[in-house]
Amino acid sequence: MLFDTHAHLTDKAFDPDREQIIGELIKLNMAGVINCGYDAPSSEFSVRLAEQYDFMFAAVGMHPHDAKFYNDAFEQKIKNWLAHPKTVALGEIGLDFHYDHSPRDVQKQVFIRQLFTAGEFSVPVIIHSREASEATYDILKSEMKSERAGVLHSFSQSTEMMRKYLDLGMYFSISGPVTFSNASNLRETVRYIPADRLFIETDCPYLTPAPYRGKRNNPAYVRYVAEKIGEILSMEYEKVCEITCQNAKRFFGID
Question: Can you list the domains of the chain with their CATH numbers?
Answer without folding.
Answer: 3-252 (3.20.20.140)
